[in-house]
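Today's session is about reading a structure prediction critically. Students often jump straight to the picture, but the first step is always the sequence itself: look for stretches that repeat, for charged clusters, for runs of hydrophobic residues. Only then move on to the predicted structure, which in these notes is written as discrete structure tokens rather than atom positions. Here is the chain we will use throughout the hour.
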Amino acid sequence: MKHIEVAAAIIRRDNKFFVTQRGYGDFKGYWEFPGGKIEPHEGAEEAPISALSLTG
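Below is the predicted structure for this chain, in token form.
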């Protein structure tokens, strides 16, 4: 079985949470926290940020 490391973020501001809704696949329409695959050059804290393209 393929092993992929991922990380998710819980983003809260003023008691509101940022979540996304899947638009494809078996879980289409379900809500999820933003996240991303952990690339070899980054840590778990950086993966959700780079997945959201918030840095460079």
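Discussion point for the tutorial: Residues 5 and 31 are 20 Å apart (CA to CA).
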